[in-house]
Amino acid sequence: MTPDAPWLIAGLGNPGPWFRLTRHNAGFLAVDRLAERHGARFRRSGLAGLTAEIGIDGHRVLLAKPLWWSINLSGRPVAALLRRHGVPVERLVVVQDDLDFPFGSARLKRGGGPGGHNGVRSVGEVLGTRDFVRLRFGIGRPPKGRSVGDFVLKKFSEEELAVMPGELDRCADALETLVRRGLNRAQDTLNARTDA
């Protein structure tokens, strides 16, 4: 990997305005926040989805919202963007919602299983590797008696939306630190703030 290789930060979500504030679209919301910070706008990038380009301390960073019918088929557009922009898999970051963490909690890690997230599974299967970084944004578990499928496709509650800007800022901070200073430093920063 060359030192000046670009980064790709891909937020996972479902296409269409109805899904915009649903829990399964936390990945889209996080990359939206990062784009806003840097004054970047998303534009259509062929069949691969929407992309925006930013710079972080001299590093070229491509932000993406893959659009391929469903979040569960995110692998093909992510792979297409990696090829098109010459991004090594070591500099791919996938931002996802995660049922295993309470709302507002977030974790960064490299590799590991998809944990039941079909979009992450699709990326790993298409790329033939899980050696990419994931930012996992906690959305909590559904209330008793409510299905997971129904829960992730419902909008965040009013209480959650009220604090969402701060939670997304924490994620954006972590992603910027990852690019600037590496995974270990970004993990320390994010995990310390999450546990506080």
TrEMBL record:
Give GO terms for biological process: protein quality control for misfolded or incompletely synthesized proteins; rescue of stalled ribosome
Q: Where in the cell is it found?
A: Cytoplasm
SUPFAM superfamilies of this UniProt entry?
Answer: Peptidyl-tRNA hydrolase-like
**InterPro entries annotated for this entry?**
Pept_tRNA_hydro (IPR001328), Pept_tRNA_hydro_CS (IPR018171), Pept_tRNA_hydro_sf (IPR036416)
- Site (Discriminates between blocked and unblocked aminoacyl-tRNA) at 14
| Amino acids binding tRNA | 19, 72, 118
> Under the GO molecular function aspect, what terms does this record hold?
peptidyl-tRNA hydrolase activity; tRNA binding
Tell me one Pfam family matched here. Answer: Pept_tRNA_hydro
- Which residues constitute the catalytic centre? 24 (proton acceptor)
Q: Name one GO cellular component term.
A: cytoplasm
Reactions accelerated catalytically: an N-acyl-L-alpha-aminoacyl-tRNA + H2O = an N-acyl-L-amino acid + a tRNA + H(+)
Q: How does it assemble?
A: Monomer.
Question: What is the similarity comment for this entry?
Answer: Belongs to the PTH family.
> Which protein, by its recorded name, is this?
Peptidyl-tRNA hydrolase
> Which gene specifies this protein's sequence?
pth
